[in-house]
Amino acid sequence: MCYIIKTFINHLLILTALPLSCSPLALLWLCLSQLPMSYMSCIFQLSPRRTDVLTVTPWLAPVVWEGTFDPMLIDAIYKPMNLTVAATVFAVGKYIMFLQGFLESAERHFLVGFRVHYHIFTDEPEKVPPLTLAAGRQIIVHKVHKLNRWQDISASRMQLIQKVIEDRVHREAIYMFCLDVDAKFYSRWGAEALELLVAQMHSWFYREQRHGFTYERNPASKAYIPNGEGDFYYAGALFGGSVGEVYKLAKMCHSHLEIDRANGIEALWQEESHLNWYLLHNKPSKVLSPEYMWDNKKGQPGEIKVIRFSQVPKNYKEVRENA
Ligand SMILES: CC(=O)N[C@H]1[C@@H](OP(=O)(O)OP(=O)(O)OC[C@H]2O[C@@H](n3ccc(=O)[nH]c3=O)[C@H](O)[C@@H]2O)O[C@H](CO)[C@H](O)[C@@H]1O
Ligand SMILES: [Mn+2]
């Protein structure tokens, strides 16, 4: 505290020592640009700015909402680490139409200033748009077979995520995120999302009570969550964390999907149901607010100060295989 007061006094002294001919804007800029990190964090962080939403879980994981973090401070901490973050994106069948909008908007808002490896899984590699990416960022294309049912395409992601981590991501990246392709970025989606195991409150369920969540309710399924249990309803469209944690998650969800399949069971929301089971038993160390994967169909209620990433409206019958 002493240090901060001393720094503040120093800044006042700098100000008074400047020639009066300096414009007030230039003075303000000079003053702000001199502020050390500790002083900035004192200004921006030490009073609760969100009291309208849950900002910490009962297991003490932060819930990231606009206003709960200082983006400059976050970047100042993470950028010097020179991290590589992998992102898996599936664009199979007609979903290839979403890829360009996804990638172009990601280049504007997704972990800007970080090294990002986009792992694109598609049955038509020649249709991946030839984009020029920012320095340190690259696209890696993986050819996959198109499965017949959209449910299988969506669920097959767990197995392919597991495999790509084994093949290369474990030595190429520190963190990774697994993202739906039918969405666009609109605003900063940054390093504040990095943690060991990261999940997102589903935009349709963050105000619901537990009994309203669409968990799998069949006790014979490996995704079964009994009534009265559960924390949040997490989105299948976005999860991530350290490469090691995502590997454990994908491997277990894949194995549970296989066990269910062998027993002739398909959970209500396929891999999303298994993801919710996994996250109930392995609590995420950071929870992202619905800002991080919104659905514009819901408008913009007061607590959503920023829409960072949001689903593109689509006609399911047109884009999904065998819908
Ligand atoms: C916001 C959210 O939580 N979305 C989930 C939800 O609806 P969604 O409507 O978001 O599912 P979806 O149709 O977008 O499918 C999920 C993702 O699978 C990929 N894909 C799917 C079909 C296809 O023909 N080609 C293709 O590439 C693509 O990356 C897509 O973004 O339910 C799905 C159940 O299966 C998944 O759990 C989604 O993550
Ligand atoms: Mn989607």
UniProtKB/TrEMBL annotation:
SUPFAM superfamilies: Nucleotide-diphospho-sugar transferases
Binding positions (UDP-N-acetyl-alpha-D-galactosamine): 90-92, 95, 180-182
Sequence positions that bind Mn(2+): 180, 182
GO cellular component: Golgi apparatus; membrane; vesicle
Record's keyword terms, sorted: Glycosyltransferase, Manganese, Membrane, Metal-binding, Signal-anchor, Transferase, Transmembrane, Transmembrane helix
Biological process according to GO: carbohydrate metabolic process
Cofactor remark from the record: Binds 1 Mn(2+) ion per subunit.
Record bears the keyword NAD: no
Endpoints of the signal sequence: none
Active-site residues, as the UniProt record annotates them: 272 (nucleophile)
Entry's localization field: Membrane
GO molecular function, one term: hexosyltransferase activity
UniProt xrefs under Pfam families: Glyco_transf_6
Family under the similarity heading: Belongs to the glycosyltransferase 6 family.
Protein name: Globoside alpha-1,3-N-acetylgalactosaminyltransferase 1 (FORS blood group)
Species per Swiss-Prot/TrEMBL record: Scleropages formosus (Asian bonytongue)
